[in-house]
Amino acid sequence: MKTLRLLPLVLLSSSVLLRASPVDSRISAATVYLDRAVITRTATVELAAGEHAIVFERLPAALLDQSLQASGRGTAATIILDVNAQTAYVDFTPNTRVQELEDQVRGLQKQQRTLNDRGVILGEQRDFVKRMIAASTGTIIHPLGDDAARGGGTAARPTLDEWQKLYGYSEETFGRIAAELQSLDNQREELKAKQTALEQQLNELRGAGGKSYKTITVRVAVTEPGRLDLTLKYAVPGASWAPSYDARLHAAERAVELSYFGLVRNGTGEDWENIALTLSTARPSLGGGAPELQPWIVDVFRPSLPHEPPAMADRLEMRKAASVSGSVQAFNLAAEAAAGEAQREEKDAGFLAATVQAGATSATFKIPVAVTLPSNNTTQKVSIATTRLAANLQYQATPKVLEAAFLSAYAVNNTDYPFLAGTMNTFLDETFVAASRLKTVMPGEKFELQLGADEGVAIKRKLVNRFTENTGLTGKGRRITYEFLVTITNHKKTAERVVFKEPVPVSRNEKIEVTLLTPAEKDVGTKEEPKEVTREEDGKLVWRLDLKPGEKREVPLKFSVEYPGDLNVSGLE
Description:
Blueprint: E1 2-3, E2 11-12, E3 21-22, E4 26-32, E5 36-47, E6 50-59, E7 64-74, E8 77-89, H1 96-136, H2 146-150, H3 160-206, E9 212-224, E10 226-237, E11 239-250, E12 255-266, E13 272-280, H4 312-342, E14 351-352, E15 355-358, E16 363-366, E17 371-373, E18 379-398, E19 402-412, E20 422-428, E21 431-438, E22 446-453, E23 457-471, E24 477-490, E25 496-502, E26 513-518, E27 524-525, E28 533-535, E29 541-547, E30 552-564
Parallel strand pairs: 2-8, 3-6, 4-13, 11-20, 18-25, 27-28
Antiparallel strand pairs: 1-7, 4-5, 5-10, 6-9, 7-10, 8-9, 11-12, 12-18, 13-16, 13-17, 14-18, 15-16, 18-19, 19-22, 20-21, 23-24, 24-30, 25-29, 26-30, 28-29
């Protein structure tokens, strides 16, 4: 077995002079990024000694030429000479999937015409019956003409029996025609909906380039004849994947089972049949390095002429920068894909569903089973991984707003790969409780799962007293004293932590004085020195209580607001 020798790939714009023959190839693998996919296409050929042109036909028109890579292995001693990418415009649809959709649209249009023709026939039948009824109920002219009629002829009128028969016939006929016309309208609406959906898929698959495709020609020199397994890799837009999660809290075990899924979409124009699928968190569209920060210039405004073109030197610099930027982006994409293949190694992550490789700047998930995904932009859900994380449970409440305790679970991402932002379905044991989103969580980072209200912890808040009095020697001051009582009851069979917040007024004027009476100031902690009750920067008080099973706690809150009586104060209840 000989390994294919690689030379730097050259993209040629000239025509290939060798007689080229198309080869049968298939997509064997795809690495999907958040905004594109790198496709691996393989072909096996038997080659004699000499130069050959191996042609891959009808590839997507949106294929990125700069991303092309060719490699191979086989019994033939072969050297890659160059790679040529050309765009072909045709008067037919090159993509099999697009052609199938076009055939379906034409079939629906034919059915639509058949329904329209049937509607016209029914309309003519209805008009004919109307004319027939009008003729049968009108005046019958005397056979000898008008003069005979004026001479004593009388008009023949339908009998009662004939009226009844005529009425029954008209009712049956018009009813049948109306029912069939209504059925035709329903069928037209269904066909229109199907046609609209198919046309939307066609527009997405066709893209803006019209009916075109790429032809890739790999020119090789063979010194020893034999078999060559040729691999072609290229990047193509139209594919993407998004993370999705199922988080299941096992309350008794204090653990979160997090299932990681990928929602994969293929709109590349090529169907993927039984391929090896890899999902990557890398973002090649961002380039390889941080962008340059331009100086922030402040100057006197000088209006410029409208549509003033840049100077010649500036245009040259802009052109050069654009060229370098495109080359760097293509190089980064190719290097990233090559590095992912060269440095791949397997790691287990909990209950493994995919092979996970955590790199320095990204993670890849290799799906362990073959995947089939047509190029119709539908979403397919594939399993990535399932991991079990220890969880700290905590109830949170704001009794002033709502007398309910909301359960939250706090866990740490102890895996080697990031959890990207995505949709999340949350379950409490076997019960679905919430649909939300998970923010990006890096390895080692703590995150929160919000599990909704739990009646197992009851919270009540009531105003015990509100007392207003005059103060000062002259009695011109005013003081309002508030007293609240918050009652928390743990009805669960396990010890639980409850964190709740209560507001205390914050004065924005030196004439308004707020005094905390209960709890005493000495019992209130700070962020640096926390206690059971802590004051936050915005004046809120936060209690952190550890309740035993069945325990009931009553927490009093008392404070006063004092101000001059002639001062109009806002914000008081």
